[in-house]
Structure formats: C-alpha cells, structure tokens
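Ticket #4471: structure export looks truncated?
Reporter: QA, pipeline team
Priority: medium

Steps to reproduce: submit the single chain below to the structure queue and open the exported record.
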Amino acid sequence: MAKIDLSQVISAVAQGASNYPQLLARALQQIEEGVNGLGQQVAAEPIGLAEPPPPVQAVNVKTAGEIVHVTATHNVPIDKNTHYFFEYDTDPSFPQPHVIHNGASRSVPPFTLPTKDDNGNPVSYYFRAYPQKLGSKPAAPVNFGGTTPTAVTMGGSTQMTLLTSTGSGTAAANGQQGGWGFGKTNTRAAIAPKRSIPA
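Actual output as written to the record:
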C-alpha cells in the first residue's frame, strides 16, 4: 500500500535547508492528491457531504409461499462505494420499517416472512429501497409499486407478529426514522434514561 512519506520535507524544514520550499510544495501536492484520492475510493468528499446517489429506478418483489425475493433496478452511473438499503413494513407509510443493509448488492437473498400475525390475521408487507454513499445522505426511497406502494401477501400458515424495528445507523433507536440508511447525521446523541433512578 502506497503511503505518503513526509520525512524528507520534515527534515528539510527542521534544518532550514535551502530547498525546503520546493519540498514543501511537493509534499502539499501529495497530501492534496492523497486526500482527494482516498475520498474518491470511499465515496466521501474531503470537505462537506457528497451528493447522494440517484434514486433507484424500481423495486422488484417476487414471492413463493413465505419466501420473498427483492431486487432494485439501478442502471445509472454510480461510485464504487454505493450501498443499498431495503426496507419493509406492514404499513404503506413505512412508520417503523425493518431495514436491510445489503452492501453493494442490488439483490437481497431470498428470506421468509410470516403470513399471519400472532392472532392469525393475514399481514400485508410493503417494500422500498434506496442507495447511499458512505459520505452522503441517502437518496429518496422508491416503493415497490411506485408512488402508491403495492401490498405483498405471503402464502403460508406461520403466525408471528414481528418485533418492532429499531432502525439503522444514526437514526432514532425506536425505528421511527425510516429511510436513514447509515444516517443523515454523523452521530446520534446518547439515549437518555426514561426516568431518573434514585441513588
């Protein structure tokens, strides 16, 4: 791995060598190229936020029994470190979606979902997807079915109400900030206790 070596210029500056201005200029050029190159490799801007990737063009869903397969269509120019997030919820407004961080892949491996809740009521699922770079905010989510999400039902007998989502990245831990991916902020403050505990 190539690393920036500034030992020569550091020595020249420390000794007041006559050629230190030229060495310093060369070192600054190396630093600039190194920082910008690293930013390009990790899809992050050295200064400020990178532009979010374009939204996906479509979300595709196929089911068989209680197995579901979800993919995203994204035929646009993208950076190497673009990641894909998929979300599903039982409410078309996605108030508390479960998040799947799928890395660089636009195809989620097939997985299972229960057909009914704990009480035996049939459940409808809604899906959406969005890309995000490591150094950007997420793109706007795109629903399976377009503007009005299309409901997906399973074809089995499993009864299980899913646990509530706890979100992803720096989004709120109550799962009620869908569409955040890695996060829209770099950090999330510590979660305060619900009540004070006497000493």
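Status: closed, not a bug. The export was complete when the record was re-opened. Leaving a note from the reviewer for reference: The mean pLDDT is 90.
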